[in-house]
Amino acid sequence: MPWSPSGVPILLRRLWTRLRTLATVGIGIALCSWVPVAMAGEGEDMEVSPVNTSISVMLLGSIGFQMLLFYLVNWSDRDIKRYSWQVISQTISIFCAVLLFQAFN
């Protein structure tokens, strides 16, 4: 793995740059989803409940997380792909273990 002059691996720097770009896109999508609500509220009294806001944020967050997973799994570097699949596999294993433990307990 090549090293940059600052001591941070170039691979990690590239990963940070791509993740920062993906986060910026996610924030842009979230802001664009609230623009119609803000514009509709100008002429009429439109009340947005905290439940609706939390549901929309969770929906956008889950979509953004899935985009991140697809982005990491389809990365050009083999190490990032391998570690992404390992983390996904370990996470699924933990969830299955907890569900089986609760089912038999």
Structure description:
This protein is mostly helical and 105 residues long. 81% of the residues lie in helices and 0% in strands. The protein contains three helices and no strands. It has helices at residues 10-43, 50-73, 78-104. Helix 1 runs antiparallel to helix 2.
- Kindly state the percentage of residues in helix: over 70%
| Number of strand segments | 0
Average the pLDDT over all residues and give the rounded result.
78
The percent range for strand residues is under 5%
**How would you sum up the global shape?**
flat
Could you state the order of secondary-structure elements as H and E?
A: HHH
Low-confidence stretches: none
N-to-C span: 47 Å
- DSSP helical segment count: 3
Give me a quick take on this structure.
The protein is mainly α.
Question: Which helices and strands, and how do they pair?
Answer:
Blueprint: H1 10-43, H2 50-73, H3 78-104
Helix pairs in contact: 1-2
Observed structural traits:
105 residues; mainly alpha; 3 helices
